[in-house]
Design goal:
- InterPro entries: Metalloenz_LuxS/M16, Pept_M16_N, Peptidase_M16, Peptidase_M16_C.
- Keywords: Hydrolase, Metalloprotease, Protease, Signal, Zinc.
- Belongs to the peptidase M16 family.
- This is Insulinase family protein.
- It is a single chain.
- With 447 residues, this protein is an alpha+beta fold.
- It has two domains: 229 residues, Metalloenzyme, LuxS/M16 peptidase-like (Cytochrome Bc1 Complex, Chain A, domain 1); 183 residues, Cytochrome Bc1 Complex, Chain A, domain 1.
- Helix content is 41%, strand content 19%.
- The chain has 17 helices and twelve strands.
- The strands form two sheets. Strands 1-5-6-4-7-3-2 form a seven-stranded mixed beta sheet, with helices on both faces. Strands 8-12-9-11-10 form a five-stranded mixed beta sheet.
- Helix 4 runs parallel beside helix 10 and helix 11 crosses helix 17.
- The longest helix is centred in the N-terminal third of the chain and has 20 residues.
- It starts with a strand and ends in a 10-residue tail after the last strand.
Amino acid sequence: MRKSFFALVLFLFVGFGASAQKVEFEEYKLDNGLHVILHQENAAPVVTVGVMYQIGAKDEVEGRTGFAHFFEHLLFEGTENIERGKWFDIVSANGGSNNANTTQDRTYYYETFPSNKLEIGLWMESERMLHPIIEQVGVDTQNEVVKEEKRQRIDNAPYGKIIYRTGVDNHLFKKHPYGRSVIGSMDDLNAAQLEEFIDFNQQYYNPNNAVLVVAGDIDVEQTKSLINDYFGPIPNNAEPNIREDIVEPAITETRYATEYDANIQIPAYIFSYITPKSVDRDAYVLDYISSILTGGNSSRMYKRMVDQDKVALQVLAFNQANQDYGTYTMGALIKGEPDWDALKATMDDEIKKLQTELISDKEYQKLQNQFETNYVEANSSVQGIASSLATYYMLQGDANRINKQLDIYRTITKEDIKRVANEYLKPNQRVEIKYLAGSGPEEDSKQ
């Protein structure tokens, strides 16, 4: 992930007040298939230009993993009109900031500028789409950057295999490519030829595989004219990508695994489940469940395992709903000598309470307040709104879900929480992972 932060941070948080407000936007499509979303917000002189491509780790072929994430780095190298290594200099010189990120489902690039620099942002992203220079020197340079990122974030980072899910999703998904890590294999990247990187760009970095979002202090008609000038002439190098619907067989018997981490001294015990995809209403219910069980110091598991029983130093929670499937991972960093059976029994007991008892009125109101606050914070900047609009359009098929999300949370009932806990958090539908200190072999081990 590339980061560059400049003086514009002060402008990023364009407040919406104490309660959620509707996000107004306009969307249309260019003749070349590029979907465009415009959000006008003139409260501060700042604008975000973002382009999201429907290419993520799940789209890679076996033996060439890591390409999607690699391109997140490679396409900052330069273009026919942006000298190699000068991308960030141009952004900085114009008072802007920029970043990019890759997930299993998509890759997203964006710049945030003072609004009088909108044209520079559009030019730069059109350059990335139309004129990238993909050459061996750039591939070699970014190969080293990605290796260093992997070392810092996963190989040498405490609990990196849990945080970045390289030691979790591989045990959950045996058929679907979500079982592969986003950062991919260094061996695969080393083995790839330059022509393969060029082909990858031509296949996925096309207008008909992207959405452009412009959000902030804009004049809509002027912005449309600029978009037409910069993006309208860009041709498609490939037909729209047709993705295979890969079905992951349901887990019907508890799986056991052991992962080792040489960077830790405190072991962890993990439960992980396959859950509904992001468009499914039950995915929202699981957000509530995650908050109840493991969402911070006021969660049930924290109070029980850390404060009361003192068998854990901290609880863990990673709830993620992706385009095809979601995952919910919960667990605890263990205090003292591990009593695996007792830890498992305690975690199961808290799950069982959700499955058999309705939560209290106080807990329910707290959830409602918490998720409204989260929604407001997520959409409190034009940068956040741009990302949300792109994500909802590309991964959920409806940009207006940005205005429906909070309503969905508000309709969730106590009975929904009980039902969903019973449906998805069954012992025979999960992976249980002992996460141990050391550098031992990484392999499944039956208890």
